[in-house]
Amino acid sequence: MKKNRLAAIASCIVLSGAFCTLAQNKTQQEIRIPDTYKLTNKSIYRNGWIDFNKNGKKDVYEDPTAPLDARIEDLLSQMNVEEKTCQMVTLYGYKRVLKDDLPTPEWKNQLWKDGMGAIDEHLNGFQQWGLPPSDNPYVWPASRHAWALNEVQRFFIEETRLGIPTDFTNEGIRGVESYIATNFPTQLGLGHTWNRDLIHKVGYITGREGRLLGYTNVYAPILDVGRDQRWGRYEEVYGESPYLVAELGIQMAKGMQTDYQVAATSKHYIAYSNNKGGREGMARVDPQMSPREVEMIHVYPWKRVIKEAGILGAMSAYNDYDGFPVQSSYYWLTTRLRGEFGFRGYVVSDSDAVEYLFSKHGTAADMKESVLQSVLAGLNIRCTFRSPDSYVLPLRELIAEGAIPMSTIDDRVRDILRVKFLVGLFDQPYQIDLKEADKEVNSAENQQIALQASKESLVLLKNENAVLPLDINSVSKISVCGPNADEGAYALTHYGPLAVEVTTVLEGIQKKVKPGTEVLFTKGCDLVDANWPESELYRYPLTSEEQSEIDKAVENARKSDVAVVVLGGSSRTCGENKSRSSLELPGRQLDLLQAVAATGKPVVLILINGRPLSINWADKYVPAILEAWYPGSQGGTAIADALFGDYNPGGKLTVTFPKTVGQIPFNFPTKPNAQIDGGGNKGLNGNMSRVNGPLYPFGYGLSYTTFEYSDISIQPSVVTHIQPVTVRCKVTNTGKRAGDEVVQLYVRDVISSVTTYEKNLCGFDRIHLNPGETKEVTFTIEPRDLQLLNSDNHWVVEPGDFKVMVGASSEDIRLNDRFTVVEYGKEQAASPASAHQQRSVIASSSQETAARVLDGNLSTAWKANEGEYITFALENNASPNSIAIAWKEKSKDAKFEIQLSGGGGQFLTVYEGVVDATNELKTYRFKGTTASDIRIVITSGNASISEVKL
């Protein structure tokens, strides 16, 4: 079903020089929008400059050739306290706080007669959650929208004393939020492309369309790192890896800020995405993290995006950390953000973050004290759905009382003015080329980039017996069902374009199949049931209506060659303030899937959702599963192309799929062995007490073709702490189809002064390979990728070995090697390999010869008497079920045991045997379980071991 909500808008009469007062009379009066915005014959518009303060001369701040700091200081020196404080607040736009779409004479009596720092979401079409887009005539077409924002801007330039332009701010995490604009997948979907160049293009289009529509500041990218899959805003993160969030955030911000077309304001600063129990709403407090995890996971992207992309905005978050609200924290808003990270833009509050200091956190007595704490901490602009007077008036009282020095106010306003100068508001405050807005916003060219993003965000989770791709010539009848099969609302929620045409999965399939192919459709079930989410606690019987609709889907499947079931979530189950207590398919969706699968027909499950789901039954019994996230307005086209093989899915997971909500927290990266617990054998006589491992790990994703990795090389193999390392490998497409592979590079600090993550993502590259084609992939490991926060809270690269892992996922490592960091000027005592062997083997006696059992030489050996043992440290999450031993010499009564340690230092015997001195490797098999160490114990006599293969 098409979601085309474009309303016909009448043509209009000639632009007038007077301010429009059409708000009460829109149906009677019409305005013709010219191709180019025409400024009236006001004396302030000069050749190459604007006389903002109307004094007839070119002041420094009005001079485009003057240095930036000089312009800022000149303007600041002319501002009075009313003008300064008005710059420190946002006025929410039409139908949010501002009742007028265009300026009226009454504006001269409002607070903003002295200017306004920003106007947010003005005429972008969003009214409030649950309501359709605004039908205001200025939301579309693009030229009309840009003209209307120009008219608002003209009030601030022409009718205020100093003529300081306002900053038009707006959302933009999946395309700029407007009635119409290019509609991209949600940020989670964009993360799954792993494509830096593509994200840069998305950022550029978002910023470019934003500026053409009249906006100068867009709230993106989101730099939150996913940690708890229950969290409602998981759909808004790029993923769980701070490195990936930083890499994509840098490209998004750079694209947005190309030529300073807009300011990029990132959110939510800081430590926002790991609230207790993944809760949201008023519970956005109490993040469950240690200080070191905050630094390694949540601070990392902000440091890099600020330093490398120079974002001009940061949104301060609602939450506290360690008992201190971020909104009132001088440490976070000034010491760290500006002092350490070098941030030079302005800080804007998340909605009600200031108010929460007294209404939620209880660290301020009232609004006035909240304002005081926020401004002193470093807040530049308060932004929320309240009258700006509610902030500015207490702020002025505090200044008059001497509680806030004017020097502090000047510092806060200075930052705001810097951003306004950088984005050209004092040189090009109007969007002049109105016709270009109609040409470019949501253009065919931009939609092609959006379609590419929709395709590249797809992740193939399962494809048993090559069910996919479907043969378009052999499928004569296909059944489609599921609550998301003919639903496009996922593409039209807040924080992005609101009223574009959406191609649903059903429509995509109908357009893709050959003429004469029958597509049978029934919904099958609703997204949730009448008792949801309570129905996740105990089972309610199916109603007759629910059973009848499932029966229709079953009947369609029986008639068809293949059944496509489209399940998942929507804004009902995921999004801001939509955290969950379960990760199962909501409502009757699993009932529908099981009933369709019971027909015996091939089933393809398509997931459209905003968070990982624990689809254990589907993973076990459904042959093909395609994860689409919220794939944007062209998601149906992208999915149909993938189903029928016109596109080969190549996305990889940037998040972890837990098997159950009971495993949470369960994410990437993780400390060594932190996500494995208990034994590995189930059943009455087993030793398992809980399920272990992910359903799908970070980095996972299948393809219709296969890839082979080879020829890893590391140069140099020995470096100092300031040298980069180059890692190369070759990847070959060994299948029969062209496809994309996301090559992933992980690094592990083998021995460190503090515990570090078992795998740190520090490189990735999405490459396209034709059948039989080989490409060499090159990664550069920078010193920053090797740093840890030591016990003195200093970022350092410690000397020692670093393990390099290259693979197709975090658990599908294809190539391994090592390099060594040494202190400058010191010789390396041992090669990386021999040093690792020394640390990996511990013997109860003769430790100096213990490494001989791993040297590959059968002529060397380690000798042990009764009761002595040799222990080998295993890789993280190892579950061994065999070991090969070459015995060199033995006594007649020599016996041994093989033991495993599953934690706590306790070793359990898994094999008992008699020593067989053959001087050849002999494999001993046993019932395996998860273990950290494996031990060989001589239980009788004596024996020597020449070689061991783990």
What does this structure look like?
The chain has 950 residues and is α/β, with parallel strands linked by helices. It has 5 domains: 45-78, no CATH class; 79-439, Glycoside hydrolase, family 3, N-terminal domain (TIM Barrel); 458-674 and 691-696, Glycoside hydrolase family 3 C-terminal domain (Rossmann fold, 3-Layer(aba) Sandwich), CATH 3.40.50; 707-830, Immunoglobulins (Immunoglobulin-like), CATH 2.60.40; 836-949, Jelly Rolls, CATH 2.60.120.260. Helices cover 24% and strands 20% of the residues. The chain contains 20 helices and 34 strands. The strands form 8 sheets. Strands 1-2-3-4-5-6-9 form a 7-stranded parallel beta sheet. Strand 2 (118-120), helix 3 (142-159) and strand 3 form a beta-alpha-beta unit. Helix 5 (196-213) runs antiparallel to helix 14. The longest helix is centred in the first third of the chain and has 19 residues, at 291-309. The protein is globular. Residues 1-23 form the signal peptide. Keywords: Coiled coil, Glycosidase, Hydrolase, Signal.
